[in-house]
Amino acid sequence: MRLLVVEDYEPLARSLVQGLREAAYAVDVTGDGAAALELARANAYDALVLDLMVPKVDGLSILRQVRASGSSAGVLIITARDQVPDRVGALDLGADDYLIKPFAFEELLARLRAVIRRRYGAAENLVRIGDLELDGAARTVRRAGRAIALSAREFALLEYLALRRGQIVTRTEIWEHVYDFAAEPSSNVVDVYVGYLRRKLGDGEGGAARLIQTHRGLGYALDAPGAA
Length: 228
Description:
This protein has helices at 10-22, 33-42, 59-68, 84-92, 105-120, 152-163, 171-178, 189-201, and strands at 2-6, 26-30, 47-51, 74-79, 97-100, 126-129, 132-135, 140-143, 146-148, 169-170, 212-215, 219-222.
């Protein structure tokens, strides 16, 4: 999942970016409200982690304009403003959640997972597709009961496909939602990582069903064979 962190206090911004990337998120970051608006308009973020008090364009104005543009990206507000009118105002403008500073990073992760689940219509962290189980909270994957170790990027790719279960996901969509500006662009990087996933999942090998389907010229879909 790809996030935009909008936070002008650099120590906190650095800490958030490091922790979120370790949790398998692709992360872009800015401390400038005007730059945040441009990034939000140009990229398909799954969620914004948005401080209200940033320079040039404040967080509520960013939120208002993001929602006016029709964006369905989740928005998690992080702020020192702890009064009820502040929370009500942000939620009424379209924020999905509101977290008061200081906060525990584990709580931010849990709230982000909930925000993103709601965006994709998922009811819980555990996704089951055939004999595959993906736990978004524990960041674990099992197939036929066997634990499978994935890199952060591989997990992010599998999670995105799982949340889009049964849909054909284009290579462009995968790039936009799984990779950030820190990633090195490559014409075949998505195909390479799909190949890594297939090998680690044993997809289509030794009698195992093939869960990741290739739709030539279109992209990939993840689903159990015979699923309606």
